[in-house]
Amino acid sequence: MPNAPVTALVMHPVVRDELLRPDHLQRLKQCCNLLSDAPFRDFEEIGADLTRTEVLITSWGCPRIEAALVEGMPKLRLIAHLAGTVKGFIDEAVWKNRLHVINAVPANAVPVAEYTLAAILFANKRVFQLQNFYHMHHENRAPWTVEAPNVGNYDKTIGIVGASQVGRCLMKLLIPFDFRVLLYDPYITPLEARQCGGQKTGLGELLSQSDIVSLHAPLLPDTQHMIGAREVQLMRDNATLINTARGALVDQEALITELKTGRINAVLDTTEPDVLPPQSPLYRMNNVFLTPHIAGSLGTETQRLADYIVEEVERFTRGQPLSRTIKLEELSRLA
């Protein structure tokens, strides 16, 4: 294709086979001069073609992109990362060379937000606790006012901690429901919070007023264990903590101490460590629902990542603005 940008796939072959369907590759060939259908495992394999490569499509298995590599690629204009975070993966020199950097985080945010929405609806409906009760007693005790106090989704308050891609996506999914949505994020304004569908509050106010507290903040030095003993004690009775972000956002021992009282509940897709030891009490608590880090893209959902990146590359080759680029000043706040 005349004037099509020279493009290289750099990732593990298994990743390419998992994420890129034949129609994805065909679309790339229609807008790019693809050096090879097979991915390169490292940049040395690209050889002399590095100097004329304009687009890199990277993913899991791609080596770190260092400053020296970028200097040897004078025509490079776009790095499209077919995966999540680029933090620690791309040298800051990339941004100094005025290159565009994108990733598939907006696409991966969708299944995480969907999982969280399901968890919110089930938690407010006390599905997890009532399932356990039904298995044990084989009884219907409707209206369940004793076994499930304050049960139901109507007029509940949902607290979102972090206006990340997932947090914002979740807030859009919450719009059709009869919820009040609170948002804690020190980097956004009250107007931005309202535009997302929520009301900006402090963390303490959010914790004390919310029926559900859902974590969507990045793990940074100042967010590690941001939910500690004081924070879980601020949560209202029968509230549920949902964590689909990073386990280390929560002081796990403090959470376990509060959960043992039976006063609050938790839905945990991420823990610290990621796989809990067999002796962890979290496995045995009736007020805890555990899943093995499955909220992100799995199975067919991984195709959304490729759909997103291929569409962005097509936009780039047509000279259209990209939907979202990663800016250097954002790196310190990214997950």
CATH architecture of the largest domain: 3-Layer(aba) Sandwich
Contiguous runs where pLDDT drops below 50 for at least 5 residues: none
Number of strands: 12
Structural class: alpha/beta
Per the CATH scheme, the topology name of the largest domain is Rossmann fold
Let me know the largest β-sheet.
7 strands, parallel
CATH first level of the largest domain: which class? Answer: Alpha Beta
Query: What is the H-and-E element order?
Result: EHHEEHEHEHHEHEHEHEHEHEEH
DSSP helix fraction = 25-40%
Strand order of the largest sheet: 8-7-6-9-10-11-12
Shape: elongated
Count, helices: 12
| Terminal residue distance | 38 Å
Domain count, please report it: 2
> Strand fraction band?
5-15%
Return the average pLDDT rounded to an integer.
94
What assembly state would you assign to the polypeptide chains in this entry?
single chain
Per CATH, the superfamily of the largest domain is: NAD(P)-binding Rossmann-like Domain
**Computed Rg:** 23 Å
Structure report:
With 335 residues, the chain is an alpha/beta fold. The protein folds into two domains: 6-103 and 300-333, Rossmann fold, CATH 3.40.50; 109-290, NAD(P)-binding Rossmann-like Domain (Rossmann fold, 3-Layer(aba) Sandwich), CATH 3.40.50.720. It has twelve helices and twelve strands. It has helices spanning 13-19, 22-31, 67-71, 93-96, 105-124, 127-137, 165-174, 190-196, 203-209, 229-234, 252-260, 302-317; strands at 6-10, 33-34, 55-58, 78-81, 100-103, 156-161, 179-184, 199-200, 212-215, 240-243, 265-268, 288-290. The mean pLDDT is 94.
